[in-house]
Amino acid sequence: MDKTDRSYLRYARYAVQWGIFLFLVYAGYRFFFFVEHFLAHGAALQGTEEAILRNRFPSIEGFLPIGALMALKLWITEGVFDSIHPAALVIFSSALVLALVLKKSFCGWICPVGAISESVGKLGRRVFGRNFLVPRYADYGLRSVKYVLMAFFIYVVVLKMPAAAIFRFIEGDYYKIADVKMLYFFTEMTATTTVSLSLLFVLSLFYKNVWCRYLCPYGALLGLVSFFSPMKINRNDQACIHCGKCTKNCPSLLPVERLNSVRSPECTGCLTCVSHCPAKGALDVSLMKRRTVNPALFACLIIAVLFGSIGIAQLAGKWHSAVTYEEYQRIVPQTSRLDHP
Ligand code: SF4
Ligand code: SF4
After folding, report:
1. Quick one: DSSP state of residue 62?
2. Is the CB–ligand 1 distance for residue 99 below 6 Å?
3. Could you tell me the residue range of the domain that residue 159 belongs to?
4. CB distance 232 to 189 below 8 Å
5. Is residue 86 part of a domain?
6. From CA 212, how far away is CA 187, in angstroms rounded?
7. Residue 3 within a domain
8. Does 2 reside within a domain?
């Protein structure tokens, strides 16, 4: 194999992203029947209570980042680890650790929304022959929207909400079935949700990563944390042949060819630029700007941090929810009537 050919990095990333996406679709499918079981008084699934509970994969809690933010505050301030949706806290914490060490790689390698968003942009490029660029003045303004949303959640959850109130919320019925509410978000879409998602889809056909670039508060937080990451994409001007492939292929629209070091909070550590660079030694991942890090090792570390955290949580008994079969039996039928306390 040509030593400058690092296209395997792209394929590895697609494999990880879509592997996780497919797993979550399967987890959602099983969760649907889990919920139906409690709505149909036991008809949807057969087996012991323990076997029924196994149809609820804890990974679905990755879709509860606001609950995870509350749980993180409770954990840090009171030392209490959320037992209702512990997997949400584990996934959220590992995303923060990833950002701190390995750039915003949760967005670039793990998040299924990122994978879909990127693919819709590629589909748009196929259909229309190109993606369009938002004018620079509008781009700056729009990019601030996700930081405003992030600041709002941090203000409400981290600054305003006392730990005691978080504890009461987490122990309440509403939070116990927050995952069921999230399922309904997808299976029983309101007209507003359908219109919003359709609009997002259409916009993403024309403009790259609309959700991630302009709206996602989760990505905004990870981007800010990633400022402190010792890992950066570094360009060596001496070896660079100025082909522009890095800039052209960067999903985050970063002008890599003009930078010596990519510091932007938009960089997801996706390694697409590195994988496209044809000049040996021109573009690499570096640690503290001093040591070059093998990009394959960088990719392996992302997987190791995520799955290592999940493994540790499982061993420590902090992965599966403590909500019991009887509680699901009592609360799930009330889901649509339960409002935010
Ligand atoms: S600079 Fe490179 S690693 Fe960062 S987002 Fe762009 S392509 Fe991905
Ligand atoms: S892809 Fe590599 S050689 Fe081409 S401009 Fe970027 S850093 Fe330079």
Report:
1. G
2. no
3. 8-337
4. no
5. yes
6. 23
7. no
8. no
